[in-house]
Amino acid sequence: MKQTKGAIAVSSSELVEMVSQQLQTLLIAGSYDAVKILLEPVQPVDIAEAIGSLPRTVQALAFRLLRKDEAIEVYEYLDASVQQTLLERLRSGEILELVEEMSPDDRVRLFDELPAKVVRRLLAELSPAERRITAQLLGYEAETAGRLMTTKFIDLKEFHSASQALAIVRCRARDTETVYSLYVTDRSRHLTGILSLRDLVTVDPDSSIADVMTREVVSVSTDTDQEEVARAIQRYDFLAVPVVDREQRLVGIVTVDDVIDVIEKEATRDLYAAGAVQAGDEDDYFQSNLFTIARRRVVWLLILLAANAGTSAVIASQQAVLKEIVLLSAFIPLLIGAGGNVGAQSSTVVIRGLSTKRIQNLGVWRAIWRESLAGLFLGLLLLIGVLPWAWQIGGSLLVGAAAGISLVAITTLAATAGAALPLLFDRMSLDPALMSAPFITTATDVVGVFIYLQTASWLLVHFRFH
Amino acid sequence: MKQTKGAIAVSSSELVEMVSQQLQTLLIAGSYDAVKILLEPVQPVDIAEAIGSLPRTVQALAFRLLRKDEAIEVYEYLDASVQQTLLERLRSGEILELVEEMSPDDRVRLFDELPAKVVRRLLAELSPAERRITAQLLGYEAETAGRLMTTKFIDLKEFHSASQALAIVRCRARDTETVYSLYVTDRSRHLTGILSLRDLVTVDPDSSIADVMTREVVSVSTDTDQEEVARAIQRYDFLAVPVVDREQRLVGIVTVDDVIDVIEKEATRDLYAAGAVQAGDEDDYFQSNLFTIARRRVVWLLILLAANAGTSAVIASQQAVLKEIVLLSAFIPLLIGAGGNVGAQSSTVVIRGLSTKRIQNLGVWRAIWRESLAGLFLGLLLLIGVLPWAWQIGGSLLVGAAAGISLVAITTLAATAGAALPLLFDRMSLDPALMSAPFITTATDVVGVFIYLQTASWLLVHFRFH
């Protein structure tokens, strides 16, 4: 968690653009003191973005003009590519100081992006304490609490008095991620309680920590998935959650600001899945080149295309009935479109319900049953529009009847599959988002076309329509 | 922001279920003291959920057993429907005390859900101070900072010393939403600076607030959209952001915990739009009945159906070429499917880019141009698979050529439209999410079928294939 520092309230993108332009002018003119004055009231994240939008050649120059403590904070906010540029252009002493002073969690995020060779060199040059912490964090799996946490927290002992504890907070405030959540550990570093700075400043200064702390603590373990960490902080309105290892020893904390980024990333991932786009590591679609973009999209397109090839095969195999009544083909897009839309709706609400944990209260079978009913009901509603239209454009009662009957069958099936497949994937511990709208829609195509043309053949044979 | 209180770390849904079952058994047995012991270590949000899952008849009974200060917190976490049940079952004195003690922001959220008659009665019975605050908050438009904020914050004066300020914090800690962000105002309540409790405990106790506060403050105004408030807190890693009125007077603060819920709600809204589901007020799809569900889905389905009816009309108008070569129809689903998927991908990344503000750096025209190129490139990649398949299944070079040519045209157009339409909507200050995957997919259908059958007719006439 960063400390608050001001900036006048204008839209942040306008502000950044303004700062970036002035910065460039001043740097070219060599007015370095003016740069310092310009950047003084600007928030670190805005400075980082302004530096990121400068030409590469002057980025290091601008960065060197920052105050040392601010430089570290700004560096943590820079994009990975700008961080790398700076590493190449700064002197090795400057780099070392920077990397040494970064928060452990931000350092690990930087190391994730750097080439292994550079990481090894930087690790070797860190102080023993920071090296140990960094190596430890790098050892946890990606997207777990262990990777997300920081090891800079304040731990107190039960025998401390409130005033002693406040003195500890004062003394360590500059070097820690948050001073608002305080943790109490025993001699073997087991987490025994928590208290907030709010509690600490309001209680009698002589009371002992043991008496004012809360003994039952919500904690996560180092291998807890980052999404679950985010849910815990969100659910309980925490500012931070402690992370313990397998022996219940306190090893770090995850703060709310990191969790907000996780929530946004997970939402992007779900949305991308709903649009058949593979989410990247750093979620920066708009900074990747055309080939990276194509790579992230073509796999899903090919899978869906293969399914669609099945639809072509089904139609080709039913060409007898199509030869008889060419106009049957006019309703293929409409029927598979309606089915696809109903199925997409069902999978959307179910996938979102799974990730916000709201579906759990309902139970799997009731959720599927409700969606099937909704699909049937929606199909009947749509029928009112489709039947006369198909009858008129299709030019025969047979086309109207075939389109109407299959419409209701398709929407019911699509809604059932749209609800059941993500739930099945979730049960099998696969990502339910893989069964999102594009997949459901395409699966509906094959089945829908088959139902429609079979119904038409059957009507043609049995009722001698026409 | 709530104060931390413990609960042993098990999965929250298991915990809630366990608590709920034990609670019900104990209530039926009349062991009220055991209920108090059971609930002592449980977090308020978990108690709220456990009470919500009890039969309606015993909810009020369980609620009455809570300690008074805890009852208010639990009440704030209850679902709107359970809050209403309790209002009907508690005595009017109990209700009044409850509503009087709630945070203003949570009270406003409750009043939003209650019938106007009940709100008027409750408002009349509130103390003058709370009535004034509530009426003021209810006056702001929904989904703005004014509606989201709380008026319970700590304001200091510049002439206070750090130790005086700390005394004020101590004294008002119980009655305020957060003690970690402190605000400095002048005599006419204009916001002149901010400081954090972290700053306050670390500075010399004799220094004056004027010397230690930050004068440039990021603030939002009462009519700022809640999504922008969320972006500000997320961007700057704040715990709270001050809200000022038109005269720059400090009127409230929005805290990070409320902002997390906004971020999740906005993500749900975007995801629902991507699945052609209308998002409800309270986002609780799984608690609404079948007719509410149908109402939230049928409007989009009808709009999309109307567009699909256009596709039928296009095919019907081109039936001459279909009569000539029936197998052309076999590739209609494949072509519009591929185009729809590429268009859905483009609209997904653009809409997400707009809502996370990542697209702004790129510029509108470059974003569209990149997507068009991506569409062309992806079309050419898919062509490698489609051409031989269409030639073979279609049984003639004409079908293969028509399918291949139109495939590339359709994917390019779909990607362009998928990027351009959300951006156009954003420019026109409409919600870009309306131009999400389902709409783009359906629009692609009409145009795609037209291009395909026109290409086939043209090839048939000019090259005498067959």
The greatest interface here is: A-B, 136 and 137 residues
Spatial strand order of the main sheet of chain A: 1-2-3
CATH architecture of the largest domain in chain A: Orthogonal Bundle
Q: Enter the CATH topology name of the largest domain in chain A.
A: Tetracycline Repressor, domain 2
Point out poorly predicted stretches of chain A.
Answer: 1-10
The coarse silhouette of chain A is elongated
Distance between the termini of chain A: 74 Å
**Helical content band of chain A:** 55-70%
Domain CBS (chains A, B): 149-212, 213-271
Organism (chains A, B): Paulinella micropora
GO molecular function (chains A, B): magnesium ion transmembrane transporter activity; metal ion binding
Function (chains A, B): Acts as a magnesium transporter.
Can you walk through the features of this model?
Two copies of one chain form a homodimer. With 466 residues, chain A is mainly alpha-helical. Chain A folds into three domains: 12-143, Alpha Horseshoe (MgtE N-terminal fold), CATH 1.25.60; 155-264, Roll (CBS-domain); 285-463, Orthogonal Bundle (Tetracycline Repressor, domain 2). Chain A is built from 22 helices and six strands. Chain A has helices spanning 12-29, 32-39, 44-52, 56-64, 68-77, 80-89, 92-101, 104-113, 116-125, 128-139, 145-148, 162-172, 197-202, 209-212, 226-236, 256-274, 290-317, 319-324, 332-355, 364-394, 397-427, 437-463, and strands at 155-156, 181-185, 191-196, 220-221, 240-244, 250-255. Chain A has a three-stranded mixed β-sheet. In chain A, strands 4-5-6 form a three-stranded mixed β-sheet. At the A-B interface, helix 12, strand 3, helix 13, helix 15 and helix 16 of A face helix 12, strand 3, helix 13, helix 15 and helix 16 of B.
